[in-house]
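At this stage, I wrote out one protein, both as residues and as discrete backbone shape codes, and that material follows here.
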Amino acid sequence: MRRRRNDYRTWEELSVQERRRGVAILAVAGAAAVTATWLVVGGGGTQAEAGAAPPPTVGMQASAGTQASAGTQVTAETKAQLSAWYAGTADLRSQIVTAVGDVRADIQAANGMALQPACVKLGQVVDRIAGLGQPPVESASQTWTAGATAYAQAVTTCGNLFDGTPQPPPVLLARTTDALNTADGHWTTLASQIGAPAQVVPTSS
């Protein structure tokens, strides 16, 4: 019996062939998103096999030291405070990288059973971002917040795959990956603003 046009199936109800087709569509959409991020961030970088590729690393900094918003003077003391704040986020950022890598890998493998808990785990880490406070420089604060917001959006959209949201799984998978690309891009830009090495989602094995 045929379903109504708007009666979409969940991830678990799709056949293996349909999942693979959805991932193929996702790869095309993700590649376009990464190209846009690359144009903004600049530089070359590693390619993740899981889902769409994450944004590249920043090979060279646009200028020495912290980048501030136009017309804002950043003192040496503020730079030191910013670097200290960023160092204090290292553990959580590392957990984000790992959790994002797991989500990408499960999308690439069309593994819905693993994807759901992977997205839940990412959400648990994302929920801890607010507790780290904000960078002491406005431009860095805006970039940090934009990245955190995009990670939260990725978690929400991934959850929609399993809660009966009336959207085709390939669309939700593409939106999840787009949000991850956006978030990774913002936090790569943040590292550039601070003058720190960018964290890169590891390539899946």
In short: Residues 11-54+76-194 form one domain. The CA atoms of residues 28 and 52 lie 8 Å apart. Residues 27-72 have pLDDT under 50 and may be disordered. Helices lie at 16-41, 76-88, 90-108, 112-126, 138-160, 169-194.
